Amino acid sequence: MTADFDTAEPYRLNPAVALRPESFGALAYHFGNRRLTFLKAPELVELVRDLGRHPTAGAALTHVPEERREACRRALASLAATDMIIPWRGGTGVQP
Amino acid sequence: MTTQAERVPALVEQFKGGLAAPICLTWEWTYACNLSCAHCLSSSGRRDPLELSTAEMKSVIDELQRMQVFYVNVGGGEPTVRPDFWELLDYAVAHQVGVKFSTNGLRLTPDRARRLAATDYVDVQISLDGATREVNDAVRGRGSYDMAMRAMENLAAAGFGEFKISVVMTRQNVSQLDDFAAIADRFGAQLRITRLRPSGRGADVWDELHPTDAQQRELYTWLVAHGDRVLTGDSFFHLNALGSQPIPGLNLCGAGRVVCLIDPVGDVYACPFAIHDAFKAGNVRAAGGFQDVWQHSDLFADLRRPSTGGACASCSAYDVCQGGCMAAKFFTGLPLDGPDPECVKGHGAAALTAVDPTATPRPSGDHSHRTVSLGMPAVRTARPDRLCDESPLAGMAGTAGTAATTGTTSTTDGEGERS
């Protein structure tokens, strides 16, 4: 499940993952692999939560201020590597 | 694993202020136990008549689901002696509260192991305190080594996957660390090691069983070398002062911040090692339930305030050891803002010489098996089988609940920050 993260592809939050709001951002729990991940900025939480609404991960990243975009891209890549976010092949870019 | 979008305070700093809900919640389901381990941190043995009913247990599970407590560490006593154990396990899993339960193996028959292997969100932790029968049974009682081994064989044969083997480190078994790792490898299990605390009956044996200074160093060195394959929770952060390389795991005291305990009668304590009125934050039976205790109790608010380090503040190691374990200090009679009794700089040992050993705090409750003058356990020979029976074997003749669905795997499960 560690396909390379590609910003030209659509991604979404894995349906097996729940986000619990915390003061620093959120705690993400993957019910499948039981991994806990800490999203340490509210901005990243928003990005991850709304990822599926964008046609590509790159398009979602354009909503992040430029100076923090690269850090967020790296965060998404690490979330993709742990199956927290998954390629979204629906193609419409619209999450049902 | 940590995902960092930009410069923010270290996660450990965030944790100190507490979370919206615990991430490492220990929930003891009964004080009843078939064993009488010498170091039992909850002084278990006999069921408490006030233990939460099945309906009350389910209502707590409902609340944990609402609070998004994604999994709980279930213990006891021996949790599987509750007649409703399997029913509650299934209920929790069905309500998105995963369960990792600790057991001495009593009920892990081949059939039960197969059903567990087919249940998602369930993990099993077998307690074993010696890599040999001799060392294990000296602490956990005769027959307990064979019982644990049988349970592990059953889990492995059922294809359960990576269950946990949980070891309390003592003076008798530090030298067996490699042997424990080999046992874990043999069963495809993961080793978890924790610290012996002077809590519950542990207070009675702490002096003779807690690791020596040399063994603490051995343990630290072993963890630095092998820690990535071993779970430790927040057990050993006090050892970090032994070197420049921090050991893997959660390096702070999580009590009341990310950790807490719900005991069998619903009392909420700051951590599993602190069953004493001084660390009791409330009870889940109260109007606001568990959530109100977690979020609003005075005790937990206090634990989440920044601490100054007290007598330890001037120590060069304070940043890494954080003053050590609150419960270990408390039950050895040391002040909470001073050194840990196992302080690797020797400050704890020095402080202990000033403590009156007869005046140390005792646990609030003792559910130990009563013994008669000949040292025989007061176990009934008849077979009463009522719900209120205090025998831990009550209900054993009954059939257990059902388990379903597909395979299981595991990784972190509340064993602290992995970055």
Q: CATH architecture of chain A, please?
A: Alpha-Beta Complex
Low-confidence stretches of chain B: 1-8, 391-419
Largest sheet of chain A: 3 strands, antiparallel
Our measurement of the CA-to-CA distance between the termini of chain A, rounded to an integer number of angstroms, reads 23 Å
Keywords (chain B): 4Fe-4S, Iron, Iron-sulfur, Lyase, Metal-binding, S-adenosyl-L-methionine
Cofactor (chain B): [4Fe-4S] cluster
Region (Disordered) (chain B): 389-419
Domain Radical SAM core (chain B): 15-229
Structure summarized in a few sentences:
The complex is a heterodimer of chains A (96) and B (419). Chain A is globular.
Can you describe this structure?
Chain B: It holds the Pfam family Radical_SAM. Chain B: Its EC number is 1.3.98.7, 4.1.99.26. Chain B: Residues 15-229 form the Radical SAM core domain. Chain B: InterPro entries: 4Fe4S-binding_SPASM_dom, Aldolase_TIM, Elp3/MiaA/NifB-like_rSAM, Heme_synthase-like, MftC, Radical_SAM_PqqE_MftC-like, rSAM, rSAM_sf. The complex is a heterodimer of chains A (96) and B (419). Chain A is built from three helices and five strands, in the order ββββαααβ. With 96 residues, chain A is α+β, with helices and mostly antiparallel strands. A three-stranded antiparallel sheet of chain A has the order 2-3-4, covered by helices on one side. In chain A, strand 3 and strand 4 (36-39) form a beta hairpin. The longest helix of chain A is centred in the last third of the chain and has 16 residues, at 66-81. The two termini of chain A are 23 Å apart. The model of chain A has no long low-confidence stretch (mean pLDDT 89). Chain B is of the alpha/beta class and 419 residues long. Chain B has helices spanning 11-16, 54-66, 85-94, 110-117, 133-140, 144-157, 177-187, 202-209, 213-226, 289-296, 298-303, 318-321, 326-331, 347-352; strands at 2-3, 24-28, 71-75, 98-103, 122-127, 164-169, 190-195, 259-262, 267-269, 280-283. Chain B has a nine-stranded mixed sheet with strand order 7-6-5-4-3-2-8-9-10. In chain B, a hairpin with a 4-residue loop joins strand 8 (259-262) and strand 9. At the A-B interface, strand 2, strand 4 and helix 3 of A face strand 1 of B.
